[in-house]
Amino acid sequence: MAAKSDNSGNQADAQEQMVAGSAWMTAGSIFSRILGAVYIIPWNIWFGAFYLQGNALYGKGYNIYSFFLIAAIAGVPSAIAKQVAHYNALNEYGISVRLYKRGLEIAIMTGVAIAALMYFGAPLFIGGDDNLIPVLHSLAWAILIIPTMSLTRGYFQGFQQMAPSAISQFVEQLVRVLYMLLSAYVIMRVLKGNWITAVSQSTLAAAMGALGGLLVLGVYYWRRRRHFRSLVRNSNNQMVVPASQLYREIIAQAVPFVVLGAGITIFQLIDQYTFAPIMHMAGNYSAAYLNDLFALFGVNANKLIMITISLASALAVTVVPLLSEAYTRGDKKSISNQLSNAFLMFEFVMIPSALGMSAVARPLNLVFYGRSHEALAASILAFSSYLSILLGLYTVVSALMQGISQNKRAVRYFIVGTVVKFIVQWPLVYFFGAFGPLLATGCGFLVTCYLIIHSLDVQFGINYTQIAKKTNGILLTSIGTYILAKAITFLGSFSGSEGRIMNFLIVAVAALVGGYFYVYVVLKSRLADAIMGPRVAGLRRRLHIH
Questions:
Q1: Helices 263-282 and 51-73: angle between axes, nearest 10 degrees
Q2: Which residues contact 261 (CB under 8 A, 6 or more apart)?
Q3: Predicted confidence (pLDDT) at residue 202 exceeds the cutoff of 90
Q4: Which residues, at least 6 apart from 286, have a Cβ–Cβ distance to it below 8 Å?
Q5: How much is the CA Rg of the chain, to the nearest whole Å?
């Protein structure tokens, strides 16, 4: 009986830990993503007639940079978080510290090598667009800094200390956005300069932000150094792990993270290099027009849906160390429970967010991007909002597989999904134009997610009955939220104003009313308690919901 009580206590602690960690990571991701979206409004205004071309150039550069960055980081931060959690669970904190130091050596070496490759090899990756060369040169500097910063975040996460990661993430984005806006304003408005130069400075902002984020982590580490030292002194110190084995563990865990972590970026790169050639076969389109279309589906909509996808990313980062601990203990029931919790927490935030964004797609697009290709842009954003559920699900399920050390299997499933994407890409782009890449991405990730979830169910048993009941509640409430937001958007369309301020007010009112409806229903029905734990009772009291 005592054992059973202890086990249930451990499960409760794990869920509380997951919720607390998710709260920090979600807050950090959300604020960072919001900052990363809000800058678009003044940035686009200052670019004037060049904003769609500038957005396309910015997006193409960032897609290539994201792939190189993932290669430079090589999955080491997540691998470090996983392995640090593993050794901490064994009370071998001394090995965790050595693991961090060895990982730091790898991060610095790969950062230098990949940054040099990107800088000097830029002409090889531009796909015929010479304007990309200065953009890739400016982004290469960020790759020198970010691997060290990301590795340190992984170290804190391995200790279940999510606050340093979340705050450094926010500071990184804040510095980046401030530099972007300042440089864009000075170049485009004060100096009346070249838009390509302005884009290059906007991408150099990634390096400036990384310096700010790294500084925050350094301050946190310095303040907590005594705590880390006391953990090392009180370790079991019974395990002897040679440096060569630490390197092997890091690399063995890290390599699959490269493929899985780059999943969404790989699909975006497929779109970047195939969209224009396929469209040229479908009709006589100008390069400028195809750049505009690429900006609509590959950059503009993507920036906004990544705000909601970041919620799933935050959950994914949190669940890996916790799953690793349960896997180390061999606690199959705990793994099954945590899988169910992860799926439900993902649904709890992702489904209403995605449906809500689709409901306000038209005014939201007008707020951020103005009236260029207005109807098409709104339709693409609405469709991308639904697609974001699949992208977020992929982020979560791939992290779950990594948490139980089944990286190779997850990579195989991703490769299958990528093959599906390649097979359907040509016909879908040819016949559906700008919607084609989104449809092909949905097909690829749907296959990958199905294969991973099926594998998890076979191994550990997913309680679909328990999940389905709560999912129905989430779905019904989310549909109610969608209907409310859509009704407000429809009524707002009679306001007669197409300006940014009026559309911002429509979006704000729809978000507040729809959001309050969702929160009220899930608190009133106690659905939030079942998914997020007893902590939400305090929120219910503050909102006077009985």
A1: 140
A2: 70, 73, 75, 78, 398
A3: yes
A4: none
A5: 23
Residues 6 or more apart whose CB falls under 8 angstroms from that of 116 comprise 140
CA dihedral 460→464→469→471, nearest 10 degrees, is: 90
Question: Nearest to residue 46, comparing CAs of 195, 178, 200, 201?
Answer: 195
CB-based burial label for 291 (10 Å; 0-12, 13-18, 19+)? buried
- What's residue 240's pLDDT? 65
SS3 content of the chain, % helix, strand, coil (to 5): 90, 0, 10
What is the per-residue pLDDT across 73-115, written as a single tens digit (0 to 9) for each? 766 666 677 777 777 777 777 777 777 888 788 888 888 999 9
Which string of b and e fits 166-185 if b means at least 16 CB within 10 Å? bbbbbbbbbbbbbbbbebbb
Question: Measured between alpha carbons, how far is 175 from 214 in angstroms, rounded to an integer?
Answer: 12
Measured CA to CA in angstroms, residue 14 lies from 85, 324, 403 at distances of: 13, 12, 14
Is 425 strand, coil or helix? helix
**φ, ψ (nearest 5 deg) of residue 127:** 60, 35
What's the CA gap between 207 and 149, in Å, rounded? Answer: 11
More confident residue, 354 or 232: 354
Q: What is the DSSP letter of 531?
A: H
Q: Is 545 left (phi over 0), alpha (psi -120 to 50) or beta?
A: beta
CA 354 to CA 309: how far, in whole Å? 9
Rounded to whole angstroms, the Cα distance separating 469 from 492 reads: 35
Dist CA 506 CA 364 (whole Å): 9
Residue 472: exposure state from Cβ atoms within 10 A (0-12, 13-18, ≥19): exposed
Residue 242 has pLDDT above 80, yes or no: no
- Distance CA(205)–CA(173), nearest Å, equals 9
Cα 387 to Cα 146: distance, rounded to the nearest angstrom? 29
Centroid of chain to Cα 486: 26
Do the Cβ atoms of 489 and 506 come closer than 8 Å?
yes
How far apart (Å, rounded) are the C-alpha atoms in residues 412 and 546?
49
Q: Cβ of 209: how many Cβ atoms within 10 Å?
A: 26
Token pair belonging to 246: 């630490």
Q: Which residue has the tokens 């809500």?
A: 356
Helix, strand, or coil here: 127?
coil
Predicted confidence band at 184 (pLDDT cuts at 50, 70, 90)? very high
